[in-house]
């Protein structure tokens, strides 16, 4: 199967280039409904290449139909763009799907999510006799759970948040994450990134054949609504009402759940973030750093919340080598991946900026006030006073620094002085003390430089320090200078002091090899752990990018829904971090100078 696998990989990547190019057309990809013009172009390329390489084999594609081969010959099953509706809506995550049936079973699968999570794409491949499943060229060995737990993730369609209550009941006790393409969902399960995948919209042969092969390579199964394993007719035909993928134990639990009750009509009320058609960011590295910034923020916040207000000694006693995983619990009893006030305010800021098409002080302040009216389970004293109309002029608390990561993404195209001024303006809404304003400004200068250019951490540090020496309060400059030599004591004195968070973040910027290392080190220092780790996580995420944020952290964040059915502290959809990556892209689009 090596030759067919190489041919399928070559065809999938080439087809993905066609689809990605059309995805970025001004105004969006051509087409409407569930038909994109690039789908046909992509499949014609796939069919031509596979037909030339294996002229006697059969072929069945969604766009170009059937071509009969020799009796008993292998059969290609192709969907050139699984997830066309999402693709035409400007949403990342649709995928090229190429499967091969040999002797009636899926013997080869290639799935290429060509624009997810950025334009580098996500490529999966497996074939009988060709070794382990590979993801982006790397061999994988996944162990899928036989039972669902609270930390497991089930992959559902992009419409799942139209009815979170029913979907949460159907996936209990696990959580769910939205992924547009069923082929990509199956591939992610085979790769071990999720426990199960579900499709409730009557998927058929070309939707799941490639993913089915990948699942076989991982020792998993795909079954229909009756629990019977999916099979194929001699002509490749296969159809289900619903499909479930994972280990036998897990799919056996999912099949009888009340999936027919799931609402899939128009959005009602709040909805998750999405881009306008044709507005996606083509620079994959830039997008990865922006996504890393927001993911690092939420991850640090949530990990720190496990031990908020503890001393360093207490943290070490409870977690001799950590904490390192996002799990339910902590001081507030929140869900794994759930934001505290730090990241809820950051999400509020991001949504306000993207919604308005830019930073507007009055609009952002009203968004903060609207957030406060939702009854957050924690609010800092200085922030609370400001949002009810009283600015505490002498406070040097960290409440404006803790929410600043969206400003860094927004400011990626600004000059240093402009980025600093943006930070000062936002801090002034709630924390007008010059030290607070300049601490936020220094952070925005460094993190926006990291998002825009990448490179070594020292460059981001030098950008902030250079600005501070010429324009900032001396105390802010001193904190940046000290950061190069040592971290602050985080669990003594005024633990919520903005300069503690600032010095800690820049110390980890210069000394931590990854977001995980820097966030964990921060949390182990105790004190105001959620804020300190949120600030450090955002800065490190901006430098190192999305892929450096641990997969477990990303999975918990993108599947965290503090809904009344699950959460001790339920929160409105606008406070859920499930669309953090889309918000990061929206901030880049809002801030870019075309």
Explain this structure to me?
The protein is of the alpha+beta class and 594 residues long. The protein folds into two domains: 1-263, Fructose-1,6-Bisphosphatase, subunit A, domain 1 (Fructose-1,6-Bisphosphatase, Chain A, domain 1, 2-Layer Sandwich), CATH 3.30.540.10; 286-591, ADP-ribosylglycohydrolase fold (Orthogonal Bundle). It has 22 helices and 15 strands. The chain has helices spanning 2-23, 37-53, 84-88, 164-171, 182-190, 205-217, 248-254, 284-305, 312-318, 341-356, 361-373, 381-387, 405-410, 416-428, 434-453, 457-471, 474-485, 498-511, 515-523, 529-544, 551-558, 580-591; strands at residues 31-32, 35-36, 58-61, 65-67, 75-82, 95-102, 105-113, 122-127, 134-135, 138-139, 153-156, 175-178, 196-199, 221-224, 243-246. It has an eight-stranded mixed β-sheet, sandwiched between helices. The chain has a five-stranded mixed β-sheet with strand order 12-11-13-15-14, with helices on both faces. Strand 8 and strand 9 form a beta hairpin. It is elongated. It starts with a helix and ends with a helix. The model has no long low-confidence stretch (mean pLDDT 97).
């Amino acid at each position: 199967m090596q030759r067919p696998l190489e041919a399928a990989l070559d065809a999938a990547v080439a087809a993905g280039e066609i689809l990605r190019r059309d995805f970025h057309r001004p105004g969006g990809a051509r087409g409407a409904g569930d038909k994109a013009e690039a789908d046909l172009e992509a499949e014609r390329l796939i069919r031509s290449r596979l037909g030339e390489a294996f002229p006697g084999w059969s072929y069945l594609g969604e766009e170009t139909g059937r071509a009969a081969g020799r009796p008993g010959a292998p059969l290609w099953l192709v969907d050139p763009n699984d997830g066309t509706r999402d693709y035409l809506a400007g949403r990342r995550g649709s995928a090229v799907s190429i499967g091969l049936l040999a002797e009636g079973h899926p013997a080869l699968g290639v799935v290429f999510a060509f624009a997810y999570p950025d334009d580098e794409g996500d490529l999966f491949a497996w074939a009988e006799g060709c070794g382990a499943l590979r993801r982006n060229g790397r061999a994988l060995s996944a162990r899928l759970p036989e039972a669902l737990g609270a930390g497991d993730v089930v992959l559902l369609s992009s419409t799942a948040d139209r009815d979170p209550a029913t979907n949460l009941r159907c996936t209990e006790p696990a959580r769910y994450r939205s992924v547009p393409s069923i082929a990509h969902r199956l591939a992610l399960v085979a790769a071990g990134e999720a426990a199960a995948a579900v499709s409730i919209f009557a998927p058929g042969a070309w939707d799941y054949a490639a993913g089915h092969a990948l699942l076989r390579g991982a020792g998993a199964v795909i079954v229909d609504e009756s629990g019977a394993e999916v099979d194929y007719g001699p002509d490749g035909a296969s159809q289900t009402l619903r499909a479930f993928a994972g280990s036998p134990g897990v799919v056996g639990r999912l099949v009888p759940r009340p999936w027919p009750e799931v609402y899939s009509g128009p959005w009602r009320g709040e909805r998750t973030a999405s881009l306008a058609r044709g507005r996606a960011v083509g620079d994959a590295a830039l997008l990865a750093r922006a996504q890393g910034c927001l993911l690092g923020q939420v991850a640090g916040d949530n990990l720190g919340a496990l031990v908020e207000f503890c001393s360093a000694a207490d943290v070490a006693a409870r977690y001799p080598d950590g904490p390192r995983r996002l799990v339910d619990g902590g001081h507030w009893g929140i869900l794994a991946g759930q934001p505290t006030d730090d990241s809820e305010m950051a999400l509020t800021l991001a949504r306000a900026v993207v919604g308005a098409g830019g930073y507007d002080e009055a609009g952002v302040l009203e968004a903060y006030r609207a957030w406060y009216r939702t009854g957050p389970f924690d609010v800092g004293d200085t922030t609370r006073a400001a949002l009810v109309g009283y600015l505490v002029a002498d406070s040097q608390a960290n409440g404006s620094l803790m929410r600043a990561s969206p400003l860094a993404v927004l400011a990626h195209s600004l000059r240093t002085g402009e980025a600093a001024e943006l930070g000062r303006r936002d801090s002034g809404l709630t924390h007008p003390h010059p030290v607070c304003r300049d601490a936020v400004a220094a952070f925005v200068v460094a993190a926006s430089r990291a998002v825009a250019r990448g490179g070594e951490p020292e460059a981001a540090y030098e950008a902030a320090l250079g600005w501070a020496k010429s324009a900032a309060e001396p105390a802010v400059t001193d904190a940046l200078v000290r950061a190069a030599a040592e971290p602050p004591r985080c669990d003594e004195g005024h633990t919520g002091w903005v300069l503690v968070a600032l010095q800690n973040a820049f110390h980890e910027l210069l000394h931590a090899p990854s977001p995980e290392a820097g966030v964990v080190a921060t949390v182990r220092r105790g004190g105001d752990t959620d804020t300190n780790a949120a600030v450090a996580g955002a800065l490190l995420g901006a430098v190192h990018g999305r892929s450096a944020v641990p997969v477990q952290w990303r999975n918990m964040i993108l599947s965290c829904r503090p809904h009344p059915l699950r959460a001790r502290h339920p929160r409105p959809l606008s406070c859920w971090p499930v669309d953090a990556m889309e918000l990061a892209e929206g901030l880049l689009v809002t801030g870019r100078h075309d």
